[in-house]
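During the first year of the project, the team set up a workflow for recording each protein of interest as an amino acid sequence followed immediately by a discrete structure-token representation. This format lets reviewers and collaborators read both layers of information side by side without switching files. As required by the reporting guidelines, we include two representative entries from the current panel. The first entry is reproduced here exactly as it appears in our internal archive.
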Amino acid sequence: MPSDLAGRRYVVRGRVQGVGFRWYVLHEALRLGVRGWVGNRPDGAVEIIAVAPSETLAQLEAALRRGPPAARVQNLDVADVPQEAVDSKSFTVKH
């Protein structure tokens, strides 16, 4: 694995469920070549685990702050995670 890879956990709060947020994240992650997953949380937030080069994660983070048109992002928590947190070679939506 390239050493420039970083792992991040994002928790997005606001109006982010029922507005196509997971599918928006899936599209952005696939476009950017990010590995990981996105899923709804029981508390109404959306959680993303992502592994990619730091510059790519910065682009993903900017997209998360924007969100799809119907979403209203109020808060974005960001934390580092080990890149081993993602064992897949692609990006998926958790149901």
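The second entry, processed by the same pipeline in the following quarter, appears below.
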Amino acid sequence: MLTMIQFSYTAEAAQNLIKNPEDRSKGVKALAEKLGGKLHSFYYTYGDYDGFAIIELPDNVSTLAASLAASNPATISKIKTTVIITVDEAVEAMKKAHGLTITPPKG
């Protein structure tokens, strides 16, 4: 299961990284590997989040565990976890959805 985890550092964590620069992708890689997965990419960004990682994990429980472990309030001020759907999976879902309907609520 591919997952994107977006994160923002606390002001204190950002200042610590300025004082002592380090490659934070190593910690994310180790975390993913402990959960039976792997880190695909790690980037810093402008905007609402300071960066994101694309990780592959075996299941939803591992994905939630990674997000919870990364949510250290001394380091991370904001985190967002998004499951990534491949094009092949999306096409499979489109085929499965074909002909399905749901009764709308009565109003």
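For the second entry, the following points were noted during internal review. The helical segments are 11-19, 25-34, 60-70, 87-97. The longest strand covers residues 76-84. Both points are flagged for discussion at the upcoming steering committee meeting.
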